[in-house]
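for the recovery benchmark. tokens below, seq after
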């Protein structure tokens, strides 16, 4: 029997992407109100031995999320612009994603380092320095999410994020994937990227503590070079928490990440839920078709 697959995805412009075992399905609401879908086969790279190897799989998932997420975002953007003369190209979207990634590294990893150095005279030990840097990094992260949640366009994407979570929660509860059933479920999910990022920020404090307080250029390099290591550890911690979510101690540790999801998810309407349900149903259908033996 095949190991149970953890379905999940992300919100895109007027839609939801769901990642299945065999395919990535992106369902988007067209400007005229109709639903459209894009189905892409998942590369064997994302399902091979690296995807099953502890620590290494976290890096693969990070790359996978960027690649598949960007392709889904490009599709959804062009669907929303289908009535316009100009549409986005893959090159332009990848360029924007590269700039966004560079800004994220600068904002969440480099800026906290320099801000903390301002208080360096009062921070005697490397442990204290890294603890304060971690608090500054977390404050910037929470502030960033709060500002994003106030922007109307981003807020709408966040409601599709809530639709994605509700649909996955309903599927994992083994209830029918219909509007009446899915409505009842939470917009928070333990495997959410927001919770993952919170775990990453916590783990970064520990990892950077081992670096200590060397020269500034070494500290800057460590904040960039060690990101894949921190992401790999964060993935393992997030998956462990999801598997043991009923443990009281794990619930306490998961609580901050779940609370942060209140900033990155919104209560979806039925039309948005319909998009998420359509995407997940199709992903599950394709997986079951692959796994069902053909009668002779």
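predicted aa per position
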């Amino acid at each position: 029997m095949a190991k149970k697959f953890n379905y999940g995805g992300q919100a895109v412009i007027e839609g939801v992407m769901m990642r299945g075992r065999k395919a990535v399905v992106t369902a988007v609401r067209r400007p005229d109100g109709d639903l459209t879908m894009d189905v892409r086969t998942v590369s064997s790279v994302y399902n091979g031995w690296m995807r099953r190897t502890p620590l290494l799989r976290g890096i693969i998932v990070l790359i996978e999320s960027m690649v598949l997420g960007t392709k889904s975002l490009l599709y959804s953007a062009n669907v929303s612009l289908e009535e316009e003369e100009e549409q986005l190209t893959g090159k332009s979207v990848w360029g924007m994603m590269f700039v966004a990634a560079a800004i994220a590294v600068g904002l969440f990893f480099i800026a906290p380092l320099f801000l903390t150095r301002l208080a360096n005279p009062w921070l005697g030990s490397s442990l204290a320095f890294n603890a304060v840097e971690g608090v500054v990094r977390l404050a910037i992260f929470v502030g960033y999410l709060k500002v994003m949640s106030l922007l109307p366009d981003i807020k709408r994407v966040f409601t599709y994020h809530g639709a994605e979570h509700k649909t996955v929660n309903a599927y994992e509860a083994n209830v029918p994937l219909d509007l009446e059933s899915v409505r009842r479920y939470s917009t928070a999910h333990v495997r959410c990227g927001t919770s993952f990022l919170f775990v990453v920020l916590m783990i970064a404090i520990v990892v950077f503590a081992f670096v200590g307080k060397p020269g500034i250029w070494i500290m800057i390099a460590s904040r960039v070079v060690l990101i894949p290591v921190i992401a790999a550890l964060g993935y393992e911690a997030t998956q462990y928490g999801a598997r043991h979510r009923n443990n009281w101690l794990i619930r306490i540790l998961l609580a901050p990440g779940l609370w942060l999801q209140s900033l990155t998810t919104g209560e979806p309407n039925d039309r948005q839920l319909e998009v998420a349900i359509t995407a997940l149903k199709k992903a599950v259908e394709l997986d079951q078709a692959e796994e069902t033996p053909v009668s002779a």
